[in-house]
Design brief:
The chain is an all-alpha fold and about 200 residues long. The chain has 6 helices and no strands. The chain has helices at about 15-50, 55-80, 85-110, 115-135, 145-165, 170-200. The longest helix has about 35 residues, at about 15-50. It is globular. The two termini are about 35 Å apart.
Length: about 200
C-alpha cells in the first residue's frame, strides 16, 4: 500500500544508464552519417564503373572525394560505433579515418599525379583500412552483423589493395574499375550496418 510516507521510486543511476542515455543521439548521428556515406559511395562507384574511360583528373577527384568521405564516416564510426565499445578497435578506426582524410587531401591537391602515385595512395588506404576492419571483426565487443560487415569490408579491402599494389603497371581502366567496384561494395555494407544499427536502437 502506498502512503504519503512511502518513498517514490528513483530513476536508475550509474554509469551504464548515463552512457546509454548519452550515446543514443550519438548513435543516431552515426547511423545518418553511414546512410549518407553509403549512398554517396555507391553513386561514386557507379560513376567510375559506368565511365571507365574517365581521365586521370576525374579519377583523382572522385577517389579523393571518396577518401575524404570514408575518413569522416570512419572517424564517426570510431566515436559512436553501435556494436561494442572496444577501445583498441576504436583507436585503430580513428587512425584509419585520419589516414583516409590525409590521403584524400594529398590526392585532391595533386590532381595531375601519375597513375603510380594514385595507385599507391589507394593501395595504402585499402590495406590499412582492411587490416583495421578485420581486427575490429575479431574484437570481443563486435558481434553479429557488425562482425560480419567488418570482416567482409576487411577482406574486400585487402584483396583490392593487393590487386592495385601488386599489378606491375596498373592502367587507368584497372584503377577505375577496381575503385568503382570497391566503392559500391563499401556503400552497400555501410547501408546494411546503418540498417542494423536502427534495429538495435529501436
Amino acid at each position: 500500500m502506498v502512503t504519503a510516507d512511502t518513498p517514490l521510486p528513483r530513476p536508475p543511476t550509474g554509469d551504464r544508464y548515463a552512457t546509454e542515455f548519452d550515446e543514443a543521439p550519438l548513435q543516431m548521428w552515426w547511423r545518418r552519417a553511414a546512410i549518407l556515406g553509403g549512398i554517396i559511395s555507391i553513386a561514386l562507384g557507379l560513376i567510375l564503373v559506368i565511365w571507365p574511360e574517365a581521365t586521370l583528373l576525374v579519377a583523382a577527384v572522385l577517389i579523393g572525394l571518396w577518401l575524404l568521405l570514408s575518413g569522416a564516416v570512419t572517424l564517426a564510426r570510431a566515436a559512436f560505433i553501435p556494436e561494442g565499445r572496444s577501445a583498441g578497435s576504436r583507436i585503430l578506426q580513428a587512425i584509419a579515418g585520419l589516414l583516409f582524410v590525409v590521403l584524400g587531401v594529398v590526392c585532391m591537391r595533386n590532381l595531375s599525379s601519375s597513375l603510380t602515385l594514385i595507385a599507391l595512395i589507394i593501395g595504402i588506404a585499402w590495406l590499412f583500412g582492411g587490416t583495421v576492419e578485420i581486427f575490429t571483426a575479431f574484437s570481443p565487443a563486435t558481434r553479429g552483423w557488425g562482425r560480419l560487415g567488418a570482416l567482409l569490408l576487411g577482406v574486400i579491402a585487402i584483396a583490392a589493395a593487393v590487386t592495385i599494389l601488386v599489378w606491375p603497371t596498373p592502367s587507368l581502366t584497372v584503377i577505375v574499375w577496381v575503385s568503382g567496384l570497391w566503392f559500391v561494395a563499401i556503400g552497400v555494407v555501410l547501408l546494411i550496418l546503418a540498417w542494423r544499427a536502427r534495429r538495435v536502437m529501436a
